[in-house]
Design goal:
By secondary structure, this protein is mostly helical. It is built from 4 helices and 4 strands, in the order E-E-H-H-H-H-E-E. The chain has one domain. It is 59% helix and 6% strand. The strands form 2 sheets. Strands 1-4 form a two-stranded antiparallel ribbon. 22% of the residues are buried.
């Protein structure tokens, strides 16, 4: 059997990125990540005076969410399970934080820049958002954005046999 030699470079296509479902999930994950970063920023800066050791972690989380949104917008499929895992961790942190924001309504607590009930509401909204982000990231991961099909340019004509 003769070895096939092609002129030019191979063209790589990603057929699973063409469907409207894949495009919709990509946009959904990007929007959810940006909303998550926004909510975390509002909670962080609104409760800055009350946050003990979480300031640096919250700022890092905001940066990560924005960076992940950038990578998802560029069709990077490998980041999706990481997004789901970190969303689960943030959801747990937020669930733990909701009662502590509600407890700050008692006497003897200094109020942060935003009222603690507002921060508790925003934090519970963050929990729901993280659940949506987990579901969207895992559903997008199932769409296999990384599948590649290689073909040669059509203007090439018939392939030349090696040594011809």
């Amino acid at each position: 059997m003769a070895k096939i030699v092609h002129k030019g470079e191979a063209v790589i296509e990603h057929p699973n990125r063409v469907s409207s479902a894949s495009k919709l999930m990509r946009v959904t994950v990007v929007v959810l990540l940006l909303l998550s970063a926004f909510l975390i920023a509002v909670i962080t800066f609104g409760g800055w005076s009350a946050l003990a050791g979480m300031k640096a972690i919250c700022i890092a989380w905001i940066i990560l969410d924005v960076a992940f949104a950038y990578f998802v917008a560029k069709w990077t499929r490998g980041i999706l399970p990481v997004i789901a895992t970190l969303a689960m961790m943030m959801g747990v942190f937020a669930m733990i934080a909701v009662p502590s924001w509600v407890d700050r309504e008692g006497s003897g607590y200094a109020q942060p820049a935003l009222d603690s009930t507002v921060l508790a509401t925003l934090t519970s909204m963050l929990v729901a958002l993280q659940l949506l982000l987990i579901a969207a990231a895992l559903y997008a991961f199932r769409q296999q954005w990384n599948v590649e099909i290689e073909h040669w340019p059509e203007e090439e004509g018939a392939a030349l046999a090696a040594g011809a």
